[in-house]
Amino acid sequence: MDAPKIALAERVLQIKPSPTLAVNAKAKALKAAGADILNFSVGEPDFDTPPHVCAAGKKAIDDGFTRYTAVPGIPELREAICQRFADDKGWSYEPDQVQVCCGGKHGLYNMAQALFGPGDEVLIPTPYWVSYPPIVQLAGATPVEIPLSEDNDFDLTEELISKYVTARTKAIILNSPSNPTGAVFSAAALEIVGKMAIKNGWVIISDDIYDTIVYGDEKLPHILDVDPRLKEQTLILNGVSKSFAMTGWRMGYTLGPKHIIAAMNKIQSQSTSNPTSISQKAALAAVSGPQDFPTMMRDAFVPRLDFIMKALLEIPNVTCVRPKGAFYVFPNLSAYFGREFNGKIIGNSVELADYLLDEALMATVPGAAFGDDKFVRFSFASSMATIEEGMKRLAEALGRLS
Ligand SMILES: *Cc1c(COP(=O)(O)O)cnc(C)c1O
Predict the structure, then answer these.
(1) Start-to-end CA span in the chain (Å)
(2) Helix crossing, 277-288 with 51-62: angle to 10°?
(3) Angle at CA 142, nearest 5°, toward 141 and 144?
(4) Which class is domain 67-289?
(5) CA dist 118 to 14, 139, 392, Å?
């Protein structure tokens, strides 16, 4: 007789595994089986971690820097982060207002655990990064989606936000530049968010992980530049995953009010303890060393962005807002829904992404994963040759639908 199946906790039943990682896994499996898969689903730079950062990690091992560290991260790293923010942004933070954690995603998790609970609502402009709703749900709170429109360049407006505000609204999550749209919130939109946040006492979570990958010459508008009072209710999320191509090192950090950081440190002390000692030394080299690597990477993305935008807009019935940052394009492919291939109707973004994987051998991420089914996300953090071949395959595959 089979043993009785152990029941799982309620909290895990309401969330799904990260769909971007799932697509990536399926593409990798097909590739391992010999298929010539072009991977547009990856959410990380295609560059290697810079050598001076790797060297710092190796040195940490050789020096025996392999034991527990302070829970919120080594003081010299937190000091270096404060210095970087002071130099680059003119914002003043003290080391006890900084928590270093195991990747940006973990920082969000710590914030949610420290701040949210049952009854709290968290505003999430949509399309959103896949992990925001489940992280809010795992804290027992309710994610509230604010649907953004491509017609308005995925920007926020007062009218739009007002529709979703209730007495239970506790926070809003901003991600600018955005994954998946590449959009940037306008200064006017941030002004409105800032005013509403001050009036209602909301927490603002500003996920700035792509702030070094910005196209054009305009300064990236930021919520902290709206009103100095907002510093007391804002949590800045950042890290080295995207800026220094260090996704595997798992190094993120949060800056914010001291009492919130202290609460997050309590959570971290009872869950992961300190982030990896070796990775902290590598992150220290990244944050305190020369800053030309992020700029080099941004510059390398520009011709790829130009090419992929042009190619997408040449495909009939495709619309796409030009990204102002990050390394994703998010075209609206919904004009192709309802069409068919071999007698099978493509009804939504998941079926379209599946069709592209099977018939065009290209891995993408369906918009449904980001809360908007009209779109499909393509990462252009891959070689120009891959992008050129991929756009050819995309145009042909969409053209075969009737
Ligand atoms: C990649 C990413 C992060 C952080 O990822 P980590 O690998 O956990 O550092 C945070 N927010 C967004 C929107 C991202 O795309």
Answers:
(1) 52
(2) 140
(3) 145
(4) alpha beta
(5) 14, 8, 48
Say if domain 10-48+293-399 classifies as CATH 3.40.50.920. no
pLDDT tens digits, residue range 293-321?
999 999 999 999 999 999 999 999 999 99
Question: How close is the Cα of 76 to the center of ligand 1, in Å?
Answer: 23
Q: Which of 130, 206, 241, 377 to mutate to test the pocket of ligand 1 (most atoms within 8 A of CB)?
A: 241
Pick the range with the lowest mean pLDDT from 38-47, 109-118, 289-298: 38-47
Q: What's the burial of 152, exposed, middle or buried (CB within 10 Å: 0-12/13-18/19+)?
A: middle
**Ligand 1 proximity of 121 Cβ (cutoff 6 Å):** no
pTM value? 0.96
Binding site membership of 131 for ligand 1 (Cβ less than 6 Å): no
- Indicate which residue's Cα is closest to atom 15 of ligand 1: 179
Please state, in angstroms and rounded to a whole number, the distance separating the CA atoms of residues 99 and 260.
10
Q: Supply the residue whose CA is at minimum distance from atom 10 of ligand 1.
A: 104
Domain segments of the chain as ranges? 10-48+293-399, 67-289
Residues 245-302 pLDDT 10s: 999 999 999 999 999 999 999 999 999 999 999 999 999 999 999 999 999 999 999 9
Same fold, 10-48+293-399 and 67-289: no
